[in-house]
Write a structure and sequence with these properties.
Blueprint (H helix, E strand, L loop, with lengths): L5 E4 L21 H27 L5 H21 L10 H24 L2 H9 L1 H11 L10 H16 L6 H28 L3 H16 L3 H4 L17 H27 L2 H21 L7 H36 L1
Helix pairs in contact: 1-10, 1-11, 2-3, 2-8, 2-10, 3-7, 3-8, 4-6, 4-11, 4-12, 5-7, 6-12, 11-12
């Protein structure tokens, strides 16, 4: 995703996983195929976060330029997949797609900037605050209110994030501002993405084929604002010393960005809503472990408790959401019959 977001700040969010029923049928795909799809999504989604962090720590500190590279790689990859017949492109209203592309650009740019300036643990818990952002925006802008049943889960998430942030060893004002900006952009992106897919009747890959190149174009004017493009500065991108290792790492993140988009599409199509959300929660737990084991995050009990509380809130919210969706579908079937 380009990188997501998470939700992890996927790269680009796909359509809701609720479209496929949870009950097993005789037409279910083979277990090995499902396992392969789950593994593909899990390792590409967690891999891109870790790979981006390594690129930043390796000396390439140009987060917005890296985002631009991700969008270019995603565009080229989607064109190749369309050529191979993986999906069929669809002509869409470019004006509607451009609005989503701008929001998507903001969400991916601020996601990478948040990852650059924050620890993986704080980056990940702040990504989950997108749920709260969506709830607030829908209430204030669209007058759509969430049931009080979900308030306990949301409160648990918020308390967990506050504890994690207050005890984070890399807490800083710049990183926090980028994380908050990421929540705002991602919230609007997810709201518009869901409504636009329905109105255009397009699947995620068809929509992304428009969004990725438009996002790449819209990000060009802001490159000199966030990254150093001054030819006279020793820290500018023009003085970055490319090596086989760091160029390969950058291109790897671009390939992973494409893999994340494709794997989300495959996971939604091959499994159920429960599987999709369980895998998502598993990715969060895994990234917490990566932060401690690979990036040497200091072990502090209060900080670990904050992360665990956030994850517990996410799991609680997910279960309530799935239950509410199942009840709504059951009621809809009953009224139809």
């Amino acid at each position: 995703m380009a990188v997501k977001q998470g939700q992890t700040t996927s790269v680009l969010p796909a359509q809701s996983p609720s479209e496929k029923p949870d009950a097993s049928t005789s037409d279910d795909p083979p277990y090995l195929e499902v396992a392969g799809v789950i593994a593909f999504n899990f390792f590409s989604s967690t891999g891109i976060v870790s790979a981006n962090k390594l690129v930043f720590q390796g000396g390439f500190g140009f987060a917005v330029t890296l985002t631009f590279i991700h969008f270019v790689c995603t565009t080229l990859g989607l064109l190749l997949l369309a050529r191979l017949g993986v999906f069929t492109p669809k002509r869409l209203d470019i004006r509607k797609a451009f609005k989503l592309a701008v929001a998507g650009t903001g969400f991916v740019v601020f996601s990478n900037l948040s990852l650059k300036h924050n620890s993986i643990g704080f980056y990940q818990v702040m990504k989950h605050m997108t749920v709260v952002g969506v709830v607030i925006i829908e209430a204030l802008v669209f007058r759509k209110f969430l049931s009080t049943t979900f308030l306990g889960a949301l409160a648990t998430m918020c308390v967990g994030v506050l504890i994690t942030g207050a005890t984070d060893f890399r807490l800083n004002a710049v990183g926090t501002l980028f994380a908050l900006a990421n929540i705002l952009c991602t919230s609007f992106y997810q709201i518009w993405c869901g409504s636009l897919q329905k109105s255009l009747e397009a699947n995620p890959l068809q929509l992304q084929l428009y969004i990725a190149p438009l996002s790449a174009l819209s990000i060009i004017p802001v490159l000199p604002i966030f990254d150093n493009y001054s030819p006279y500065s020793p820290d500018s991108i023009f003085h970055f010393a490319p090596t086989t290792r760091n160029v390969s790492s950058i291109l790897l993140t671009g390939a992973l960005a494409l893999c994340v988009n494709v794997s989300i599409f495959l996971l939604i199509g091959k499994t159920s809503a429960v599987t999709y959300n369980v895998v998502g929660n598993g990715k969060t737990a895994f990234l917490f472990c990566v932060d401690f084991l690979i990036f040497r995050r200091p072990f502090e009990p209060a900080n670990v408790f904050g992360m665990a509380l956030t994850l517990a809130g996410v799991v609680w919210y997910t279960q309530l959401k799935l239950k509410a969706r199942a009840e709504a579908e059951k009621a809809e079937k009953s009224s139809a019959s």
